[in-house]
Amino acid sequence: MATNAAPRTRRTDSVIPLEVGWEAAPSASDGPSSQDDLGGLAWLPARVPGTVADVLREAGRAPGNLDAEEWWFRTAFDVEPVGDDEELVLHLDGLATVADVFLNGDLLLTSESMFAGHSIDIGRAALGRNELAIRFRALAPLLAAHRRPRARWRTRLVPDNGLRWYRTMLLGRIPSFAPGPAAVGPWRPIRLRRRSGLLVDDVRLRTRLDGQAGVLAVEARMRALGGDLPAAATVEIDGPSGRHEAALTLEPGAAGLIARGTVRVPAVARWWPHTHGQPALHDVELRIGEGESATRIAAGRVGFRSITAGPTADHDIDRDGLSLHVNGVSVFARGGLWTPLDIVSLRASHVDLRAALESFRAAGMNMVRLPGFGPYEQVAFHELCDELGILVWQDLMFASLDYPFDDPDFGRACETEVRDVAERLGGRPSSAVVCGNSEVEQQVAMLGLDMSLARIPFYDESAPRLMAEAGVDAVYVPSSPFGGDLPMRADRGVTNYYGVGGYRQPLSDARTSGLRFAGESLAFANIPDDEALATLVPEPPFEPFMHHPRWKAGVARDAGSGWDFDDLRDHYLGVVYGVDPIELRRDDTARYLELSRVVTGEVMAHAYGEWRRAESPCAGALILWWRDLVPGAGYGIVDNRGRPKTPWFALRRALAPAAVWLVDERTGGVIAHVANDGAVPLRARLRVRLYSDLELEVGGGDVALEVPAHGAVHRDVEAIVGHFVDAAWAFRFGPPAQDVIVATLERDGPAGPELLSQAFHFPAGWPLNREPARRLGLGAALDDAGGSLRLEVSSRRLAYAVRVHVPGFTPSDDAFSVEPGGTRTIELRPDRDDSRFDGGWLSGLNLAGQVPVTQPGRPA
User: pTM to 2 decimals?
Assistant: First the structure.
């Protein structure tokens, strides 16, 4: 094999997205079967990447049952002459689900998996004008026509268990919480890639720690079109640990050369989840050839970290639960299940992905789960999680069904799918957990079947082997829930925790369950603001009828149940606030909505307060889920537009890296817990104040704290006060001496005390009696100096769950409480570049009426 010191000087690598000029049309299942018979179809404009549902939405039409009819997509494109030393490859990154691809009348391929990508060298076959057409077959006739071996169990998650034979997304086909639309169409990009000269394929970057040093292993495959291969190659790494390089060895490969080597980075800056440190990343570049003629290729970014399932090598997830340790430090994992930003188109821009993940991070969350009933995410998603310091729990897309892995063709396709996923996850510091499936073991258990049916070699052996072969450095869990004799038990393995939630247990169950790790938890019907609700019934006048069909379309339920998650929220509305939700909804709808918006956040914050205690066996919990699929009171803590709901703010306070929270231990008193997830010790002051009649200070004290890095401390409120005050009002020798306890974590700043976190506890019950603003002494002062809006909210008496309503702006905090005689500073962030302040108001759960928010010098 001939080699030169330098590669070819002429090297091209251009990508041409095929995004414009698309149109789509439906056809009967016995309609056209080739590209030559499409003249009689009724074509609609289409966007690619996109779906049939997206086409119909743009046309103002309802999607209906998209599995019942076939659809064609087509476009035309021109190709300039392809030289002898060039290649032209057509990439189809995702076709949902059974699809035939035609180019100029010739069948290029048939794809039977939504999750498979395809690359086809079309070369001179594509000279000049080209017509590309894709036929998406109807799934319903395919499901009805094929007689296949029966499943060993059936799930009620989907109406047709024949879906187990098709590699497609279950979201959109789950009647109880995601009934539609089904994913049909070219949902991932389609593009042409034209290359010549030196080609570098399949670059694999893998990192590990060796003591205090980081080691990067590189493997890249190179080939040359119409020229010679290089004689030398070097890898360079640059980042917070400095610049380092190493030579790569070149070995003959099947179609060219394989470059391999390692570079060592002494005293490497480690990657951390954002709650625990800086997500340090390093840029990697390949230099191929020597001297000035060398070709430089950006190979990506890497991070150096270690991750284990527990503190010791013999940690057993089945027995001990999942307890993630990053760089040897225990990380309390909190976050949520991810859903597509747009369930209709399945399309998300890089800008939208970044905004969503930044909101996720801002809520104090450090782990996102891609659940097994959804789609795999694009590479940009994982790159952003690397950058933002968000751990990724990746399910393989298998959920509840008895998949036919014994079928040779199906088994091979699934192994190919796992290899593709492994290459996407490998070398990424954010890749933390890979899970074989969602709820397969739980399905077997809850049907009362022999648990040996849940021991499936694909999940137990094949998938972890393929991950290991690809060098994926992540904890592997065969299923979620998983562990113990039965996977539903909270005190072992990984479980779905709905004690507080779907099973309507008392709030104390968050502790008494002994939860170890919740892969799902805390599902509620979280009500968005009125602006979002108005989209449900857009015809004026808007009235938020909770039993309107459009409202109920956004509320999840369990399959076969006689209740939904509205009923569940109403249950805790009675438990927490002591109100009759039915009477309240009938007599005062506005008040019902106010209380309902706040109560789910209070319940979630309470549960996380129990789980985050240093003495708790819990090492993490993920909520179901992050973002709504459709408008309404869905599981999401942000609505389908990405706007935070009220629980988002409650969780942001509860999950902050530096936080204080109060736990009522009844006769054990009230305990202030302080966490410092950060990488440096926290020197702060814990200030405790007790008030009666929501205003009169009756006790308190201050204590200096030094909380170690990645550590936590707790203090008894009465020890800080200096004497017994029956802080929890548990002994009840008489009326409560205090009805409000406030714990404030603060540190000295340039302009005085800096608020880090604040927590409230109400021993005698929640303060829901409404008082006029004048009696509360609640006021708002807006400062727009410097072009930014800052809102100073002050109150003479305790103000509970104060809401900020300023159209066009999102507050930095909401549904917060104001300490008697205290002040809170809230930043107002514009929702759009053209947002202009035009007034607003404050509301609160113990405020009668509203408090206006106006510009300085402008009348209220």
Answer: 0.95
Measured CA distances, 611 to 216, 332, 654, 661, 860 (Å): 37, 9, 11, 12, 44
Considering the domain boundaries, does residue 179 fall inside one?
yes
Look at residues 188, 208, 223 and tell me which one is the last residue of a structural domain: 188
Identify the domain containing residue 166 by its residue range. Answer: 20-188
Are 170 and 222 found together in one domain? no
User: Could you tell me the CATH number of the domain that includes residue 129?
Assistant: 2.60.120.260
* Coil vs helix vs strand at 850: coil
Residue 182 sits in the same domain as residue 197: no
Sheet order of strands, 799-805 included: 816-818, 799-805, 840-843, 851-853
The confidence score (pLDDT) of residue 8 equals: 40
Could you say which of 260, 277, 302 is where a domain stops? 302
Q: What is the mean pLDDT of each run of 10 residues along the chain (860 residues)?
A: 41 88 91 84 96 96 92 94 85 97 94 96 83 95 85 92 95 91 97 90 95 96 86 95 96 90 97 98 94 88 97 91 97 97 96 97 98 96 98 97 96 97 96 97 93 94 97 96 90 94 95 96 95 80 76 88 92 96 93 96 97 96 95 94 96 97 96 97 97 97 97 97 95 94 94 93 96 96 79 97 94 97 94 88 96 72
* 308-337 b/e (C-beta count within 10 Å ≥ 16 → b): ebbeeeebebbebbbbbbbbebbbbbbbbb
pLDDT of residue 654: 97
CA angle 144, 150, 153 (to 5 degrees): 115
CB distance 777 to 587 below 8 Å = no
Residues 163 and 220 placed together within one structural domain of the fold: no
Helix (H, G, I), strand (E, B), or coil: what is residue 648?
helix
Rounded to whole angstroms, the maximal C-alpha distance in the chain is 95
Which whole-number Å values give the CA distances from 653 to 365, 522, 757, 794, in the listed order? 11, 17, 7, 19
Check residue 546 and give its pLDDT. 83
- Whether residue 199 sits in one domain with residue 172: no
Give yes or no for a contact between 108 and 131, defined as CB atoms under 8 angstroms apart: no
Bin 422: left if φ > 0, else alpha if -120 < ψ < 50, else beta. Answer: alpha
Please tell me whether residues 128 and 213 are part of one structural domain: no
* pLDDT, position 6: 40
Domains of the chain: total? 3
Query: What pLDDT does 197 receive?
Result: 86
Element (H, E) at 758: strand 752-761
Strand partners, 848: 772
Q: What's the CATH code of the domain at 817? A: 2.60.40.10
What's CA 155's distance to the chain center, in Å?
Answer: 25
Residue 654: CB atoms within 10 A of its CB come to 24
Q: Are 254 and 371 in contact (CB under 8 A)?
A: no
Question: Looking at residue 1, what is its pLDDT?
Answer: 36
DSSP one-letter string for 259-321: EEEEEEETTPPPB--TTTS-B--EEEEEEESSGGG-EEEEEEEE----EESSSSTT--HHHH-
Is residue 26 domain-shared with residue 153, that is, in the same domain?
Answer: yes
Residue 222 lies in a domain: yes
In a domain, 498, yes or no: no
Kindly compute the dihedral angle of the four CA atoms of residues 664, 666, 667, 669, in this order, to the nearest 10 degrees: 20
| Euclidean distance between CA atoms 144 and 138, whole angstroms | 11
The predicted pLDDT at position 561 comes to 84
User: Does any domain span residue 562?
Assistant: no
Euclidean distance between CA atoms 324 and 738, whole angstroms? 40
pLDDT at 517 (0 to 100): 97
Asked if 168 and 279 sit in the same domain, the reply is: no
Q: Are residues 263 and 140 in the same domain?
A: no
Q: 210 in helix, strand or coil?
A: strand
Q: Identify the DSSP state of 158.
A: S
**Residue 714 CB burial class (10 angstroms; 0-12, 13-18, ≥19):** middle
Which among 293, 297, 92, 254 is positioned nearest to 186, based on CA atoms?
A: 92
